[in-house]
Amino acid sequence: MHRETELTENTFQGRDSRVDGRTVTRMIQGEVSRTSQSAFSAALSKPFPPPNTPIRFNKVLYNDQGSYSPVTGKFNCSIPGTYVFSYHVTVRGRPAHISLVAWNKKQFKSRETLYGQEIDQASLLIILKLHAGDQVWLEVSKDWNGLYASPEDDSIFTGFLLYPEERTGIPP
């Protein structure tokens, strides 16, 4: 006989026992673990943002938890853990020097020089361990600001929680 059970605030965990040579699964009531979530994705709406300041990717594509501010251009960590950040940007007309800033320091720097081309792309994918209160953003340098956006060309900044920090002393 097949019976479906709807999961609610409580769920069941199985425990195996041997009875008369058969394996029997006992169901023990337990708590549903809540999954921590933090994610954003935002696009640049105007080309050539101001240099040496957080780039404001103000066209928000996803930000349900509100961890990214399109006003400041900064991701604000509220859940300690391991995060993935990426950008895929269009570079046009001049070179670009793009820095990912975390812990108030340029952690990763990349350069797109446009050798013999008018337009190109640059991208990055990086994993960082963050604590609550940490901030992450992108900047371009003064003389290397070819970061571009138009109706035909996008520049996007994305970040999400890969997994939360494990709390010691608390069983999973």
TrEMBL record:
Domain C1q: 33-168
Keyword Signal applies: yes
Subcellular location: Secreted, Extracellular space, Extracellular matrix
Main location: secreted
PANTHER family reported in the protein's UniProt record: EMILIN ELASTIN MICROFIBRIL INTERFACE-LOCATED PROTEIN ELASTIN MICROFIBRIL INTERFACER, OTOLIN 1
Superkingdom of origin organism: Eukaryota
A GO CC annotation given for this chain: extracellular region
UniProtKB keywords: Collagen, Extracellular matrix, Glycoprotein, Secreted, Signal
Endpoints of the signal sequence: none
Organism: Tupaia chinensis
Name of the featured protein: Otolin-1
